[in-house]
């Protein structure tokens, strides 16, 4: 399938936009994100390893608390950026629509930036694709649908220029990245994912700056690590730190935004120790790079097997242009 065949919605013809005016939100000189208010959020279908480990009665989220936690994250991102809210269509059981990082990916190396909408492996999520196609088409983007399984920017991390890292093997297919390379003039370092608890790439890879990237090297083959090191300085993080969500972060200007439910954990427990270890490691990395860390309690979303980065889709990467010194 060619790009021309896979276009779902197109922009107006070139030259129809007023001169100098941004054509899409991705062109704003301000961090811009897409979130979804948890109107449809539920944990009815256990579609990942974290959820199947929890009994049904313990997995059900508290709607009021989930909304409060969402608004805390939304307000913080909106304090320095522009945050769009993806509408929740009625009459559909889209339990995971709140996790917008899986909806697709904005290809930041192209101008104007097109959007590739996900082709979900997870059965309960397949209805989300049409929501994404309609939304981005109405916003004036060129929107494409990949012919292979692909689960959005959670599995495809932008490093710099036209270089990305793509995870495959659990939710996304390697063929989706080969298709993107042919059609969008991009280079994708492809790494195999094998751990069902780290089932998207945002669990093991987090681009910190244009030059530095957190990577759980223990989860990758040596040749995969070497290929990543050709393009970025690798900051190695441990598997336990990844289970606790160190890579499930979002950068906002000079701040690393991360999820932590430390205050809900019993002091001295094993979970508490792991969380403290993760937080301290992340704070050390932040200090070394003249950055800060802000934590948000998103415990209700952990019941769905998700952490902070799952809830945020980047419409641009303007934060990575922020000068730290």
Percent in strands:
15-25%
Which residue ranges are poorly predicted, with pLDDT under 50 across at least 5 consecutive positions? 1-16
Number of domains: 1
Proportion of residues in helical segments: 25-40%
CATH class: Alpha Beta
Our measurement of the CA-to-CA distance between the termini, rounded to an integer number of angstroms, reads 45 Å
Structural class: alpha/beta
Descriptive report:
The protein is α/β, with parallel strands linked by helices. The chain has a single domain, classed as L-arginine/glycine Amidinotransferase, Chain A (5-stranded Propeller), CATH 3.75.10.10. The chain is built from 10 helices and 16 strands. It has helices at 3-6, 49-52, 56-59, 63-80, 128-138, 174-184, 222-229, 239-243, 270-288, 299-302, and strands spanning 7-9, 32-35, 82-85, 104-106, 115-117, 143-145, 156-160, 163-168, 187-192, 205-207, 212-215, 233-236, 250-252, 255-259, 292-296, 313-314. The strands form 5 sheets. A 4-stranded mixed beta sheet has the order 1-6-5-4. The longest helix has 19 residues, at 270-288. The radius of gyration is 19 Å and the shape is globular. Residues 1-16 have low confidence and may be disordered.
